[in-house]
TrEMBL record:
<dbReference type="Pfam" id="PF04042">
    <property type="entry name" value="DNA_pol_E_B"/>
</dbReference>
<protein>
    <recommendedName>
        <fullName>DNA polymerase alpha subunit B</fullName>
    </recommendedName>
</protein>
<dbReference type="Pfam" id="PF22062">
    <property type="entry name" value="OB_DPOA2"/>
</dbReference>
<dbReference type="GO" id="GO:0005658">
    <property type="term" value="C:alpha DNA polymerase:primase complex"/>
</dbReference>
<dbReference type="InterPro" id="IPR016722">
    <property type="entry name" value="DNA_pol_alpha_bsu"/>
</dbReference>
<feature type="domain" description="DNA polymerase alpha/delta/epsilon subunit B">
    <location>
        <begin position="313"/>
        <end position="513"/>
    </location>
</feature>
<comment type="similarity">
    <text>Belongs to the DNA polymerase alpha subunit B family.</text>
</comment>
<dbReference type="InterPro" id="IPR013627">
    <property type="entry name" value="Pol_alpha_B_N"/>
</dbReference>
<dbReference type="InterPro" id="IPR054300">
    <property type="entry name" value="OB_DPOA2"/>
</dbReference>
<keyword id="KW-0539">Nucleus</keyword>
<feature type="domain" description="DNA polymerase alpha subunit B OB">
    <location>
        <begin position="199"/>
        <end position="293"/>
    </location>
</feature>
<dbReference type="InterPro" id="IPR007185">
    <property type="entry name" value="DNA_pol_a/d/e_bsu"/>
</dbReference>
<feature type="compositionally biased region" description="Basic and acidic residues">
    <location>
        <begin position="86"/>
        <end position="103"/>
    </location>
</feature>
<feature type="domain" description="DNA polymerase alpha subunit B N-terminal">
    <location>
        <begin position="5"/>
        <end position="71"/>
    </location>
</feature>
<feature type="region of interest" description="Disordered">
    <location>
        <begin position="75"/>
        <end position="103"/>
    </location>
</feature>
<dbReference type="Pfam" id="PF08418">
    <property type="entry name" value="Pol_alpha_B_N"/>
</dbReference>
<feature type="compositionally biased region" description="Polar residues">
    <location>
        <begin position="75"/>
        <end position="85"/>
    </location>
</feature>
Length: 560
C-alpha cells in the first residue's frame, strides 16, 4: 500500500493527516496486514463512537491499536485454531415568502424559545492526553461565523437551475401494508418460532431469486455443489475468511450449516445475515467455494412515473440542532433556504428530539409536547405555497418508539403533512423513493469482508441493500442499543421494487451514487456536533421514457 493511497482514503472520510500520522498509519497497516480502506473504516467507527469525531492524530491511532486492533488480532488467532475442527457437518405568493424569511432572520436567538459508555477508562492517561490534544487543536468557531455556507460539495447530473411549478400537488403514497401506524403496530411481540419461520422463508425467497437471476439450480452430485443460504459466523463475532458458515433453509436436504472455504474464491463481499448462493466442490467434507452469487435486486416498477413538470425535493436529516444547545440553528437556516427556493416536497428525517443530545434532560415538558411545538414552528414558517412535507421517524427520537422498524408519528392530520414509517418505500406520482433513517451503511462498514471487488466501497455497500431486498440485511444485530423486530422487518419492509431514489443517511461522508440505475444519496446530517452539516437537493425533470430514468434526475449536496 502506498502513502498516496492512504492519504486518499483518509481524505475521503474528511481527514487531513500530518506526516507523523501518515507514518504511524503505514506502520499499523503493515503490522496488522490491513489496507487503507480497512484502517479508515476502523478509525471512522472508533472516532465517532468514542472520540467525539476527533481529528486523526498519532495518539488516537495508538488508542485504536490498543483498544480495537490488538483485540481483533487476538480473536483472529483464536478463530484460526478453532476453525480447523469444523467440517462440512453443519412563483407564487412572494410577499408571504419574503415575510417568512424576514421573520426567521429577525427571530429570537432560540427557534424554540417558547419551550422551556465509557468504552475507555476515564483514568486512562493516554486517552486523556489524546482528548486534551484534540480540544486544543480544534477551533470551535461559532455556528453563525462558519465558512462555506451554501457551498455545493457534491453533485450528480445536469444541475443547471430548473424552474418548478410551486402549485403542483403530488400523490404521495406509502407502498406496502398498513403495519406502520401506532394503532396497528405490535412490535417486539414476536415469538422465537415465528421469527425463525420468517427467516427461513426469507432465505428461500431471496435464495431462489438469486438462482433464477443467474440461471443456476441447486445441485448435489458427485462432489459438485450449488446451494443457497444465509451467511453467519462460526463464533458469533464478525466473520473472517476462515469463519464463514452458510446456514441453509429447511427445504435443503442436507446439513443445516456448512463451513465455506473461500480461500480460493476469486472475489467476494460478505457479511453476517447476507443471503447468497455458492457454487463449488466438496473434498473430504470440505466445501471449496469457486463462485459466490449475491444479486437478487428487484426491477423498477413497470409503470412510468407520472412526472410531467419539474419536481424539486429537499432532504434534511437530523440532528437538527448543535450538540451545545437546543436552538435549532441549522434547522432555521434550512427553512430560510426552503422559503427562498420553494421546493415542491420537503423530506425531514429524524431524530427531531435527539435522545443522545447532552441537554435532552433539561427540557421541562414532555418530549411529545416539545416535538409538537417544534413541528408547529416549522409549519408556521412554510406558508405561502402548497409545499408537501414528509416526516420520517428515527430510532433516536426521544418522543417515539425506540425500535426498528419504527412506526410513523401520530399527530394531528394536516393536508400538506405526511407521516411515514422508517424504513419505507414512497411513491410520488409513481416515482419511487426508498428511505432508511437507521445508519445501515456505518453498520455494514464494521461487518463486511471483501476480496477483489470494486474500489467504490460506498457504492458497493449501497448495492447490498438493493441486492438483498432488505433495508437492514445484517444479522445478528451487533449494536445492542438498537432493538430490531425482525418479523416486521422481513414481512412488511422488504424492497419489492427498485426505487428510483434511495436515501441512506449516515455519519459516513456524504455521497451521490448511481447504483444499477438507482440514485443513492447520503445527505449526511444537518448538524454535526458543534458545526453545521449538509443537506440534499434533488431535481427531477419531466419523465417521458422507460429507460434510464436516472438521466432525468440531478442532485446536489450543500453545506448548510
Amino acid at each position: 500500500m502506498s502513502e498516496k493511497e492512504l492519504i486518499a482514503a483518509l481524505e475521503f472520510i474528511g481527514q487531513r493527516p500530518t506526516k507523523p500520522v501518515i507514518e504511524k498509519c503505514l506502520e499499523i497497516c503493515l503490522k496488522y496486514s490491513i489496507d487503507a480502506e480497512e484502517l479508515t473504516d476502523h478509525w471512522s467507527a472508533f472516532s465517532i463512537t468514542h472520540l467525539k469525531e476527533a481529528h486523526i492524530s498519532v495518539e488516537g491511532i495508538i488508542l485504536l491499536e490498543q483498544k480495537v486492533l490488538n483485540k481483533q488480532n487476538t480473536a483472529s488467532s483464536q478463530d484460526t485454531s478453532t476453525i480447523k475442527k469444523s467440517q462440512y457437518d453443519n412563483d407564487d405568493n412572494s410577499k408571504n415568502v419574503n415575510d417568512n424569511v424576514e421573520r426567521l432572520e429577525n427571530t429570537d436567538t432560540s427557534f424554540m424559545s417558547d419551550l422551556n459508555d465509557d468504552y475507555i477508562n476515564e483514568n486512562d492517561s493516554l486517552r486523556t492526553e489524546c482528548i486534551a490534544e484534540v480540544e486544543m487543536d480544534i477551533e470551535y468557531i461559532k455556528y453563525q461565523d462558519r465558512s462555506g455556507s451554501g457551498t455545493i460539495v457534491a453533485s450528480f447530473g445536469n444541475n443547471s437551475y430548473i424552474s418548478v411549478n410551486t402549485n403542483q400537488i403530488f400523490d404521495i403514497a406509502i407502498t406496502g401494508s398498513e403495519w406502520y401506524t401506532q394503532q396497528n403496530y405490535t412490535g417486539l411481540y414476536s415469538t422465537q418460532a415465528r421469527v425463525a419461520n420468517r427467516f427461513d422463508n426469507h432465505i428461500d425467497y431471496i435464495g431462489r431469486i438469486i438462482l433464477e437471476k443467474h440461471n443456476i439450480e441447486v445441485l448435489q452430485h458427485e462432489g459438485n455443489l450449488v446451494i443457497y443460504g444465509r451467511i453467519k459466523s462460526e463464533d458469533g463475532n464478525k466473520i473472517n475468511n476462515k469463519t464463514v458458515i452458510l446456514e441453509t433453509s429447511r427445504d435443503f436436504n442436507g446439513p443445516k450449516e456448512i463451513v465455506l472455504n473461500i480461500s480460493n474464491t476469486k472475489s467476494y463481499s460478505l457479511f453476517s445475515g447476507q443471503i447468497i448462493a455458492a457454487k463449488g466442490i466438496t473434498v473430504a467434507k470440505n466445501f471449496i467455494v469457486q463462485e459466490i452469487y449475491t444479486d437478487a435486486c428487484p426491477e423498477f416498477p413497470s409503470e412510468l412515473p407520472n412526472i410531467h413538470e419539474s419536481l424539486r425535493i429537499i432532504v434534511g436529516v437530523g440532528p437538527f440542532t448543535l450538540s451545545g444547545n437546543l436552538l435549532y440553528e441549522p434547522l432555521q437556516d434550512l427553512l430560510k433556504q426552503i422559503i427562498k427556493e420553494k421546493p415542491n416536497i420537503l423530506i425531514l428525517i429524524g431524530p427531531f428530539v435527539d435522545s443522545t443530545h447532552p441537554d435532552i434532560l433539561t427540557i421541562e415538558e414532555t418530549f411529545e409536547n416539545y416535538f409538537e411545538t417544534l413541528l408547529k414552528n416549522i409549519m408556521d414558517c412554510l406558508v405561502g405555497w402548497p409545499i408537501q412535507i414528509i416526516l420520517v421517524p428515527s430510532f433516536n427520537d426521544a418522543h417515539h418508539f425506540p425500535c426498528y422498524p419504527t412506526p410513523s408519528y401520530i399527530l394531528k392530520d394536516q393536508a400538506n403533512l405526511k407521516y411515514v414509517p422508517n424504513p419505507c418505500l414512497l411513491s410520488i406520482n409513481g416515482f419511487i423513493i426508498g428511505i432508511n433513517s437507521l445508519d445501515i451503511l456505518f453498520q455494514l462498514t464494521k461487518q463486511e469482508i471483501s476480496k477483489n471487488v470494486q474500489k467504490d466501497r460506498m457504492g458497493r455497500l449501497a448495492a447490498h441493500i438493493l441486492q438483498q431486498r432488505n433495508f437492514f440485511p445484517l444479522y445478528p444485530n451487533r449494536d445492542t442499543v438498537i432493538s430490531i423486530d425482525y418479523e416486521h422487518l422481513l414481512k412488511d419492509c422488504t424492497i419489492n421494487m427498485k426505487p428510483h431514489l434511495l436515501i441512506l443517511p449516515s455519519v459516513l461522508r456524504y455521497f451521490i451514487k448511481n447504483v444499477d440505475g438507482c440514485l443513492v444519496i447520503n445527505p449526511e446530517r444537518l448538524a454535526k456536533k458543534h458545526g453545521g452539516g449538509t443537506y440534499a437537493v434533488v431535481n427531477i425533470n419531466p419523465i417521458s421514457r422507460e429507460q434510464n430514468i436516472i438521466d432525468d434526475i440531478s442532485c446536489e449536496i450543500r453545506n448548510i
